[in-house]
């Protein structure tokens, strides 16, 4: 028989609940005892929780309750599930508790050596992410359930611009995790078109009796990226050439805005096509931490960065003067 046949035969004999030695298995299958050892090792690597008991009445047996375990996972699959559970928990995935229960079941059907390996892998991965408040986890659960059931929600939302929260009907097509934040994407009854909403700005969600059908070709991820990234066909773009060390340019190109706008790239130079409005708002503040490590060849951007740097310098000089005066008053 092939090795696979031998492994399957050993598995079925041990599933009977009877403890059997390697010699007994070898005699039953008419194979060498070393072949049994190799098959046992392969079964353990495939996820079968085989226990080796020593002593006069020892032998191999399968962990009690294994017959209730519906699937077998190899070591890489188990490690992947453990790490996925860590990511889900730290990123605020709405059903992370269910993932943790699944991992607990996985651990339940492992032997001592397999369990020790799982515990070591679970402690070898960390995710730095701000804790998600309990109510937002609840909102994510409600949004995901409504998306799956096609149920319309009533949403109270704070736009974050100092206005009073507004209430609207909302058909959630899906939830998206992007750049450390959760977004709900769907049809907004107030605007009458698809929109995206930051989950951490939602004030309240209420179920309604309304129903909806999600468009078959709609992608919540594609819609969100399309609404956040500039549209080269409808925006006035500025060519920005930046020279720097390769590592600095690599970091810059990994940013969602610059990576999307990259037109040309060499080891120490990158050319971007950036929306002009972002040169006055977002781009200067993102490039400021690089200091003089970047050589920027774009007069509008360089002028804007000089303005921002001058304003920041004036602000902190004023702050420093104020602190100096306050310290003198305290000393007196």
From TrEMBL:
Record's keyword terms, sorted:
DNA-binding
Q: Which residue range or ranges hold the Helix-turn-helix type domain?
A: 8-61
Question: Which Pfam families does the protein's record reference?
Answer: HTH_11, WYL
**What residues does the WYL domain cover?**
139-206
Q: Which PROSITE patterns match?
A: WYL
Is-annotated flag, keyword DNA-binding? Answer: yes
Coiled-coil-forming residues are: none
Q: Which molecular-function annotation in GO is an example for this chain?
A: DNA binding
* Gene3D superfamilies the UniProt entry points to: Winged helix-like DNA-binding domain superfamily/Winged helix DNA-binding domain (1.10.10.10)
This protein is called Putative DNA-binding transcriptional regulator YafY
Task: Specify the taxonomic lineage.
Answer: Bacteria, Bacillati, Bacillota, Bacilli, Bacillales
């Amino acid at each position: 028989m092939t090795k696979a046949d031998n492994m399957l035969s050993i598995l079925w004999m041990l599933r009977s609940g009877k403890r059997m030695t390697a010699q007994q298995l070898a005699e039953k299958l008419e194979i060498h005892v070393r072949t049994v050892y190799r098959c046992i090792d392969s079964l353990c690597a495939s996820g079968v929780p085989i226990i080796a008991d020593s002593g006069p009445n020892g032998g191999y047996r399968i962990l009690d309750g294994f017959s209730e375990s519906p699937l077998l996972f190899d070591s890489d699959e188990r490690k992947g599930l453990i790490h996925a559970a860590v990511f889900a928990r730290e990123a605020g995935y709405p059903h992370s508790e269910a993932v943790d229960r699944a991992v607990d079941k996985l651990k339940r059907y492992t032997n001592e050596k397999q369990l020790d390996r799982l515990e070591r892998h679970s402690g070898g991965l960390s995710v730095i992410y701000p804790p998600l408040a309990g109510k937002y986890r609840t909102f994510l659960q409600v949004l995901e359930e409504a998306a799956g059931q096609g149920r319309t929600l009533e949403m109270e939302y704070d736009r974050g611009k100092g206005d009073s929260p507004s209430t609207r009907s909302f058909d959630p097509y899906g939830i998206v995790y992007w750049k450390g934040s959760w977004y709900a994407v769907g049809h907004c009854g107030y605007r009458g078109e698809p929109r995206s909403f930051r989950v951490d700005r939602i004030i309240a969600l209420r179920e309604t009796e309304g129903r909806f059908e999600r468009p078959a070709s709609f992608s919540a991820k594609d819609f969100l990226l399309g609404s956040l990234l500039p549209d080269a066909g409808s925006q006035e773009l500025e060519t920005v050439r930046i020279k720097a060390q390769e590592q600095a340019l690599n970091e810059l190109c990994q940013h969602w805005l610059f990576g999307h706008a990259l037109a040309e790239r060499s080891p120490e130079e990158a050319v971007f096509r950036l929306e002009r409005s972002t040169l006055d708002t977002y781009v200067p503040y993102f490039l400021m931490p690089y200091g003089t490590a970047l050589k920027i060849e774009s007069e509008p951007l360089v002028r804007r960065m000089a303005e921002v740097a001058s304003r920041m310098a004036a602000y902190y000089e004023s702050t420093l003067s104020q602190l100096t005066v306050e310290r003198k008053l305290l000393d007196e």
